[in-house]
Design brief:
This is Helix-turn-helix domain-containing protein. By secondary structure, the protein is mainly alpha-helical. The protein has helices at 8-23, 28-35, 39-46, 54-63, 68-75. Helix content is 60%, strand content 0%.
Length: 83
Amino acid sequence: MAGSVHSDAYRSFLKALVALRNKRGMSQAELAEKLRKPPSFVGKYELGERRLDVIELLVILRELDADFGPFWAKAEITLPDRI
């Protein structure tokens, strides 16, 4: 189902977000601390157990020193025809 938390597009998005965190050399716990959230917050969205909203994504990208445009361009996400 295209709108599912576990759609191919969403899994690709999460993979790109995890790769960015790893590229920055940051652990889940370190990112959670920067976000002032418990480590489970990062773990749950990275595993797809929790869906991110756009504001959360932008704050996460800010803490990873990344801008949305370049992140999205490199993420190689194929969007579904329908949602």
